[in-house]
Amino acid sequence: MDKKKVITVENLVKKFGHFTANNNLNFHVDQGEIFGFLGANGAGKTTAMRILCGLSSPTSGKVEVAGFDVSHQAEEVKKRIGYMSQKFSLFEDLSIWENMRFFATVYGLSSSEFKARGEDLLRKLNLYKERKRLVSTLSLGWKQKLAFSVAILHQPSIVFLDEPTGGVDPITRRQFWEMIYEAAENGITVFVTTHYMDEAEYCDRVTIMVDGRIDALDTPAELKKQYNAASMNDVFLALAR
Ligand SMILES: Nc1ncnc2c1ncn2[C@@H]1O[C@H](COP(=O)(O)OP(=O)(O)OP(=O)(O)O)[C@@H](O)[C@H]1O
């Protein structure tokens, strides 16, 4: 049986004035897939991700996310996704619990749903006793793990992660990826940008963007075979040259 497609991108073009940031992108993502979005700085990843999240409109092309057209039904798209970025994740001057409650409200959870899921989450993260602590006092790794958990508290169809593990130590990155796997096993599709090539190896499929175009899209194993490379790092270097 065919897998359900939760993201479909056809001929996506995004221009800023005369500059083309996304140049005719075509791809799809299956439900429950961990889809890696790679590319050098300025390749156009964040631009495309913002369009997929309904935060920016395509110049042309057709983009469907969770069954809705991002150009005309952005609000429907936003209800069905979670988003987390390295640049912005949590409010530093609110406590762990206050952050959780804030995002649960934004994502439309009722107070009883929030209480049940929020307490479960705190226990799972071993943060129950720490729930009144200000987020500013947590390590970056803990902030990122908490931000990811908060982004999927409303059980979205898809979670978008923009460089979620930037600056985090290897052990915490590994733990973070265990959380990503668990979310995918529960049917949440994970769309993730990263600059860490070891993380590219953890994805089901990977695209590599170069200058606004998709230059490669396949499983890490196939890409390594195709480029006769020992690692995803070598595939990336071969393409980025
Ligand atoms: N609002 C904007 N107006 C004009 N140019 C923009 C705008 N947003 C992005 N760009 C340009 O589009 C290009 C792609 O940027 P984008 O942020 O999508 O790249 P990226 O692949 O996410 O890079 P990074 O890995 O550094 O986050 C860059 O040259 C950037 O300067």
UniProtKB/TrEMBL annotation:
It comes from the Bacteria. Keywords: ATP-binding, Nucleotide-binding. The keyword Signal does not apply. InterPro entries: AAA+_ATPase (IPR003593), ABC_transporter-like_ATP-bd (IPR003439), ABC_transporter-like_CS (IPR017871), P-loop_NTPase (IPR027417). It holds the Pfam family ABC_tran. Residues 7-236 form the ABC transporter domain. One of its GO terms (molecular function) is ATP binding. Gene3D superfamilies: P-loop containing nucleotide triphosphate hydrolases. The keyword Signal does not apply. This is ABC transporter ATP-binding protein. The lineage of its organism: Bacteria, Pseudomonadati, Bacteroidota, Bacteroidia, Marinilabiliales.
